[in-house]
Write the structure tokens for this entry.
Amino acid sequence: MTTTPFARTLRAFVGALLGALFIAAAPASAQSGQSEFAQVLAAAQNDIVKGPQDVKLSSQAVLHLPEGKVYIPQPHAAKLMHAMGNPGDYSDLEGVVFPRGDADWFATLRFEKSGYIKDDDAKHWDAADMLKSFKEGTEASNDERKKMGGRALEITGWAQEPTYAADSHRLVWAMKSREVGAPANEPQGVNYNTYALGRDGYMSLNLVTGLDELPKYKGDAQQLLGALEFNDGKRYADFNSSTDKVAEYGLAALVLGVGAKKLGLLAVIGAFFLKFAKIILLAVVGFGGAIMKFFGRKKSESAES
């Protein structure tokens, strides 16, 4: 089977990351920054949900987690994001989904209580104009990125033009981006953004993978999006114009405004590095027992010494 440069980069990194997890179990004086990964994973062991199983998302929806997928809930999910070098407030993060096996992606799940989002603007938007606006906004924010220690970004086009299904109230879009000056052949990460609209706001499912791998894993994102089901009374069709809050923005803002903010700053820059979290989770899903035994052995050795 032929592998892409991005996948080969990941494969080459497996040994280093798994080795770092074992090193992280050493005495405190010898621990490196990798120890945070090991601590988060060890704490999450008993709370990982393995599909097929239903996962409750706030009081809004349920994820019918499919076979072959695992779900890391809060508070472990937020700690995992921080351990991957992504600062910020993850109070709206529900959890993180990873595949079992050798697929190279992971997905974040969030609920945004924005209020009911009117979707009539989807009939009139222009993908070319939206792309131009996104590019201009990214260029304008590059100074802020640099102040935060990041690098300037450029938008190179759509990986998936914004598409809205009015019957199911689902929105999908993905943007291609890279660091300014990066070699043309450098592997790129991509955020494949999917949204499910409800009565009180929206659920977002952001699948992170390599740009070259996106066509292969779009189906996984669509599967997870289809597995999201709002509870009775919380569906888009349950909206009551007499009592319910209406969002201050329309559907296009999930791409140009709110969506861009989610992707922006460190999020887009970190997409490539976030990709390596898949390898970290292999330690839980595939090698968790070995790691826990290793932790136990170290603990016993310390007690005996």
